[in-house]
Write a structure and sequence with these properties.
The complex is a heterodimer of chains A (152) and B (145). Chain A has helices spanning 2-20, 25-32, 41-61, 82-98, 102-110, 114-141; one strand at residues 37-38. Chain A has 152 residues and is an all-alpha fold. In chain A, helix 5 (102-110) packs across helix 6. Chain A starts with a helix and ends in an 11-residue tail after the last helix. Chain B has 145 residues and is mainly alpha-helical. Chain B has one domain. Chain B is built from 6 helices and 1 strand, in the order E-H-H-H-H-H-H. Chain B has helices spanning 11-32, 38-43, 54-73, 85-101, 106-115, 119-142; one strand at 3-4. In chain B, helix 5 crosses helix 6. The two termini of chain B are 22 Å apart. The chains are: A mainly alpha (152), B mainly alpha (145). Chains A and B meet through helix 1, helix 2, strand 1, helix 3 and helix 4 of A and strand 1, helix 1, helix 2, helix 3 and helix 4 of B. Strand 1 of chain A pairs parallel with strand 1 of chain B, so a sheet runs across the interface.
């Protein structure tokens, strides 16, 4: 069941991106280009999404389990640090270059656009790079035990 | 002074699409108990653990299937990608790395985080929006592309 509702959520999310025009990179760039002729559409997408989202998350925040009985997994992190802001800035540069963020990239891939496939492939490499770097960092921070006696 | 491009501006369809996105995120958290953050859902597939793969694939599959289902009913949505191939690859790498370090993208921080009144998500959203505005200014108006 969670797999079915997950698929339907993704499908509905994709419809929303198509209807709103946000699957089209030219429309994203039109929003991000303040010094040209500005297309404010993205602001209305956010307004519509957040208006509904506030209600849903208000209900979700008061529950410990979902309607299907799954553990409610809301983010607990609160820290605003260089990692968060730096990541956001790097993401924003990529977003501005292509006009794609992850969701619209996947929707455009579904439309059979070769350029979207290139974007998504590179995005996966970037995400994999994060996993690789973080794994190396974890290994460097926690040295392997010298001998079994370290466990004693 | 900002001049609005009234011909490109689509207030009603964008608002309606936004409502659908909000419904999708709301449905996902109320039924599955999870945040509909696309970079997180996708990125988690690169760190697979048992019982954690199928729902991620299903969500991503839904997103990719959306235009296919849409084309069965409606007209082909407009899709204009001005960026060249090398730019798309660089952008993809930056989006992949940045969303994972920043723990979210437009959906996770922008839609879900702001709906939860999360200061952390607001900070991330301000960061990627600011970088997006600055990048388009540089690419379009300084680099003359």
């Amino acid at each position: 069941m969670p797999v079915v509702t997950s698929f339907l959520s993704g499908l509905l999310f994709g419809f929303g991106l198509i209807v709103s025009g946000m699957a089209n990179p030219a429309k994203i760039i039109g929003f991000l280009d303040l010094s040209g002729r500005w297309d404010p559409s993205l602001a209305l997408v956010m307004a519509g999404a957040v208006a509904v989202g506030v209600c849903a998350f208000f209900v979700a925040g008061r529950r410990t389990r979902s309607l299907l009985g799954a553990q409610m997994q809301l983010p607990a992190a609160r820290r605003i640090d260089a990692r968060l802001v730096g990541g956001g800035l790097v993401f924003g540069v990529g977003w501005g270059i292509a006009g794609f963020c992850p969701g619209p990239g996947l929707v455009a891939l579904g439309m059979g656009e070769a350029k979207a496939a290139a974007f998504v492939a590179a995005m996966l490499v970037g995400m994999w790079g994060f996993e690789w770097i973080e794994k190396r960092r974890r290994q460097a921070a926690i040295p392997a035990p010298q001998s079994l006696e370290d466990y004693a | 002074m900002i001049s609005i491009d009234w011909q490109a501006f689509t207030p009603w369809s964008s608002l309606a699409g936004g409502v659908l996105i909000g419904l999708a995120a709301g449905m996902f958290v109320l039924l599955n108990g999870r945040i509909a953050g696309i970079s997180g859902v996708l990125g988690g597939l690169l760190r697979p653990s048992s019982g954690d793969v199928a729902w991620r694939l299903a969500f991503v599959g839904g997103l990719v299937a959306a235009p296919l289902a849409w084309l069965a009913l409606g007209p082909r949505p407009a899709l204009q990608i001005d960026a060249g191939w090398p730019a798309l690859v660089v952008a993809g790498l930056l989006v992949g790395l940045g969303t994972r370090y920043g723990a979210g993208c437009t959906s996770g921080h922008g839609v879900c985080g702001l709906s939860r009144f999360s200061p952390r998500s607001l900070a991330a959203t301000v960061a990627f929006m600011a970088a997006g505005f600055a990048t388009v200014f540089v690419v379009r108006h300084l680099a003359g592309a």
